[in-house]
Give the backbone structure.
Amino acid sequence: MATDQLPEPDVSAENPISDHWVWVSAHRPPVPRVLVDQMTNNWAPVDFGGGVLEMATHCGPRRDAVGAEFPGQTLVIPSGGLKSRTHDTEYNFRPGTEFFYLTGCSEPDAVLVINGSSSTLFIPERRDSSTHEFFTNGTHGEVWVGARRGTVEAASYYAINTAPLDQIDAFLAQQSSVALVRGYDAHLDATVAASDTDSALHTFLAEQRLVKSDYEITQLQAAINSTVRGFEDVVRALPTAMGRNERVIEGIFNLRARVEGNDIGYNTIAASGSHATVLHWTRNDGEIKDGEMLLLDAGVEWHTLYTADVTRTLPINGKFTATQRRLYELVLEAQEAGIAACVVGASFGDPHKAAMAVLARGLNELGIISEDAETALRPDRQLHRRYTLHGTSHMLGIDVHDCAQSRNEMYMGELTAGYVLTVEPGLYFQINDLTVPEELRGIGVRIEDDILVTENGPVNLSAGLPRTVADIEAWMARLTANATQGLLSN
């Protein structure tokens, strides 16, 4: 990639410590003033386009609700800043969830301040052609990173009052009671005194997202629909992926995420064979083998940052063996029991209890645990968890594990219409687990869907992906019948 270091100037005829030069920073040479003049003139205005961001129209009422919850408080919610990947390169920026939920703004180094019914977005001024940073600043200069909305452009686009970021310290110094969402901005963390309200603010912002609006559900559905297409891409590639690396699968799915969405919602798990027994297998460096299964846990993050979270366990050659089928159908039965429990008024833990009852009974029937399901599930026993360690559900939204800062009694309380949660039971028989029959060792199965709780019962938002053995085999046969090598051609 291009380096933001400028070529060394010829200083033989000039005094470098003079008005003829602009000094930039360490390891970079001074810039001739004449070049600054030449680079900062004769540029047409950048056209950002008109109108208001669609998501921003939903953010004003959200901010009003936050302000009303904390009257007399100055509430500070940062977007976060760029994070270094190595030296002078940064990871792709993703704004803090709380900030984005309240603004729709995806600019780094911005800060939202709420005072009752008044909100202000403090945002960096543009490093445009009015300043030498336009071409000397490799992190923010618009020649290097493209135009970013400053105070004027942001005010109209995000439908909010704005102020320059460099005024934030002076502004906060005049406030008597400040609460901060910590962990996103090191400068604010260090300069804003800790408050008992900090934690309460973070908790409220998490619980505010528990019930999804119709708009949010449409965004989740868009992310899920794109995820379905990503899974289809993977299936088409499987015939030519055999004998190759799991990263082929990761790359094919991730291509769909970047082409149609903002990115992946989390690191893709492309686990073939015994890697499927590793719950968060993201190394994705194993071989894809004929006769084994692929556990693909992946989700597209949509442009509004709402993300899907879906898992399918697929026979790599398109046909389940008898053993694979038996385990798969046991997990599917558990998932169907869990989904059926996603009803208004049920406890958040009910889908898990329903799924575990099925798995514990199945493990007993397989001879893997000697206890009956009722005994195995007792709080003082729980021996079935050796083979199904994780929970069955988590909330889903802008974060893949959404609303995590909610109070336990809210998160784990009664299910409410508008909740979206995953249902994802699994069985995992480690390759070296001597308590499991040898023919089952190294097999992992997880099935995960995204479920909307409604007054009329659960709605499977990811129903576009088949789940039964017969449907999966027919789906894979159809997709691979006319598939070409495409990206996998030599």
About this structure: The chain has two domains: 56-207, 214-488. The longest strand covers residues 118-123. The domain at 56-207 is CATH 3.40.350.10 (Creatine Amidinohydrolase; Chain A, domain 1). Residues 4-18 have pLDDT under 50 and may be disordered.
